[in-house]
Amino acid sequence: MMKKKPWRLSNRLSMINSGKESNFVKVFHGIPSSSGIAIGHALPLKGVGINVKRAHANEKELQEQIALFQKAVEKTKKELKKIKNTVKHEIGLEESAIFDAHILLVNDPNLVDKAIKKAIEEHVSMEYAFTETLGGLVKVFENMSDEYLKERANDLLDVGKRIMKNYLGIQMAPDLAGDHTDLIIVAHNISPSDMVELGKKRIGGLVTEVGGTTSHAAIMARSLEVPAIVGVSNLLSDVCPDDLIIVDSNNNKVIVDPDEETVKEYQTMRREYVQYIKSLEKLRNEEAVTLDGKRIKLEINME
Fold first, then answer.
1. Dihedral sign, Cα of residue 260, residue 264, residue 265, residue 269
2. What angle do CA 142, 199, 183 make, to 5 degrees?
């Protein structure tokens, strides 16, 4: 008989009743994308938007801007290749393939070449031409009915922002120093490359307002074993920096400003969950055999 999992709320005698929430405790739900329980303080990331006004550029200005833009594109390729190699050696080959897709997007003539052509033909700044071209392509993906292809809009936006970051000389990812296992990242969305950087900082958990289980950021969170819940609508408006947050991906709960009793309950649940995972690790190399001696072969189709 299989043991009950004590870290499941439904299997505990002392359950956290969301019906007894105070005015200060907020519970949100989304899409669990990486299992686990994290308790920590919020770091809201507002993100860097790309909003460029139409601006005229003469021939001389355009030549200079196009040269700078092409350098930014080349720098972006080098950065993505470096990230890919890091992920390949530190996380895994399958996860590194995410960045092959990003490199292909940088090389896509529908993005870079089309933007340069637009700038020349319309006599507009390279910055404006690129953001307009990028926005048009992102909308094409966002309007697709297939959820997997829809998610690729985020990859395209990530690549576009990286190119613009290099073109304008601005920083994309937060600069975090040291160990941040008590830090919960709260963002509208997060790129897989940012997820890699944040994973190196040993963040405690991740919550985003958009995304699904097939998003590349969700895949990276699972690979890095960072508890994550995505698709939590309008969360940023209810979270302030340093708010105490519990991310319970096992039960699809994001709890903001929990009371002391709830925190203690979740600290116990987290310890039990870690012990449960460790007990499973001992079975990793055991044969899958039923009590009557039949061997079971498992195959997984992972997207």
1. positive
2. 95
Single out the residue of 104, 116, 105 nearest to residue 167, CA to CA. 116
Q: Hey, CA dihedral for 121, 125, 127, 131, is it positive or negative?
A: negative
DSSP 3: P
CB 233 within 8 A of CB 208: no
Chain position carrying tokens 């739900």: 29
* Rounded Cα gap, residues 296 and 300, in angstroms: 13
Q: What is the pLDDT of residues 162-172, one digit of tens each?
A: 999 999 887 66
Q: pTM of the full predicted structure?
A: 0.74
**Helices marked H in 169-248:** 192-200, 216-223
Name the CATH superfamily housing domain 59-168.
PtsI, HPr-binding domain (1.10.274.10)
Parallel, antiparallel, or unpaired for β 228-230 and 205-208?
A: parallel
Return the C-alpha torsion angle 183, 29, 238, 263, nearest 10.
Answer: -50
Q: List the alpha helices (DSSP H) in the chain.
A: 59-90, 93-107, 112-122, 126-142, 147-168, 192-200, 216-223, 260-281
Q: What gap in Å lies between CA 106 and CA 209, rounded to an integer?
A: 26
Residue 190 contacts residue 49 (beta carbons within 8 Å): no
Residue scoring higher pLDDT (91 or 258):
258
Give the C-alpha separation, 32 to 232, whole Å.
10
Where exactly are the structural domains of the chain?
9-46+176-281, 59-168
Asked if the model's pLDDT at residue 61 lies above 50, the reply is yes
Q: Note whether 230 and 31 are within 8 A (CB).
A: yes
CA of residue 261 relative to chain centroid, distance: 30
Fold type of domain 9-46+176-281? Glucose Oxidase; domain 1 (3.50.30)
